Amino acid sequence: MPIDEISPIVRKAVGCESAVVKRGWTAEALSVGSIGEDTAGFLRVAGTADVVGADTKWSLVVKAVNVLHRNTGGRTAFTSGAREVDAFRSGFLDSDGRGMTSVRCHQITDLPDVTLLWLADMGESIPYPWGLEEFVSAAYQTGLFNGSWPESSAPVGDWLDRKFVTHRPSWILRNESFSALIGTDMITAATAFTERAGIPAPGELLGRFKEVVESSLKVPLVVSHNDLHSRNAFMQIESSGLVMYGIDWASIGLSPVGLDGGTLVAGAMIWRDEEAHLIADIEGEMFDEYTNGLTDAGLDHNRDQVRLGYLSNILPYILGYVRSGVKPIGYWIPRFGTQGEEFQEQITQRLRIFMPLFDEAVVLARQM
After folding, report:
1. pLDDT at res. 69
2. Angstrom distance (rounded) from CA 252 to CA 90
3. I need a surface site. Which of 66, 156, 296, 323 has the fewest CB within 10 A?
4. Fold of the domain built from segment(s) 132-367
5. Could you give the CA distance from residue 8 to residue 19 in angstroms, rounded to a whole number?
6. For residues 198 and 188, what is the distance between their CA atoms, to the nearest angstrom?
7. pLDDT in tens, 255-279
8. Does pLDDT of 40 surpass 70?
9. Where are the domains of the chain?
10. Which helix (H) or strand (E) holds 50?
């Protein structure tokens, strides 16, 4: 890249308009656990700049986005690279002071096949897995973010999904994902698995899930990340304390209040035993902190409605346990850190641990 093109980006990153970028910067491909179809890859670009007479190291992470990817439906897809790029262009993700915020994007560069997002390098963040303090703080900051953006204050723009395309529970119902993935030839095996686990049969679970989704869509809406598990966020220790930064905004849209808080819980349910058991222990505390965030943001809310929205996006992961009991979800296996009989045993244990949340959601849905 020509030095006159990279220099303005670096000056933004180091916060000095007079910085002089030195030649010899490096670009290194980054390996990440999973990326969406619209993501071509990641690079860490690093070098040195003269900032007011002193050599200063800088580094940025460049996300290459396939905005013209033919197989994902463009801006109408569940996760859309074009939607994420447009969200950054809008300036909405530059908002500060309202709880969880976005990793800063210093520049957007359009190339013929991809768009480059020049993002702040979060390499010094608290490593995964998070502990109690990080999860509880993340829940509060997520509540602050959601509570600051009710539907009435939502930004205008096609990049913000308003048709529940990016709302995972209704997306699953529209695509009949779980019934299709279990397959008619595996219904008998899935039924036998649920009987051993002591939970309702798959067909009954799907029926109850539909009740929850339909009821949750009547809950007040807020601007939501819609995929806010801990690996889509960074926690950093700053002068004000723990600060949460979100990444992967390809699913941003309006969703029932509570959903993002539930996603923090659900995302941790499919990692190693220690993380899943921690989440089981602190789920109630996380919900309380999430609602505290809503309150501190000034959002008037009904606790039961928030709880329903919160639980609605935990249920798809519980249904995923059922599917994995007979046909394991491939990318879950390395996350669990085990396979074979031990994987099946962990799936069964987690169903028993988290199934009460499914039952609670059904009760709330019927009350609503």
Report:
1. 55
2. 13
3. 156
4. Aminoglycoside 3'-phosphotransferase; Chain: A, domain 2 (3.90.1200)
5. 9
6. 15
7. 999 999 999 999 999 999 999 999 9
8. yes
9. 3-120, 132-367
10. strand 39-51
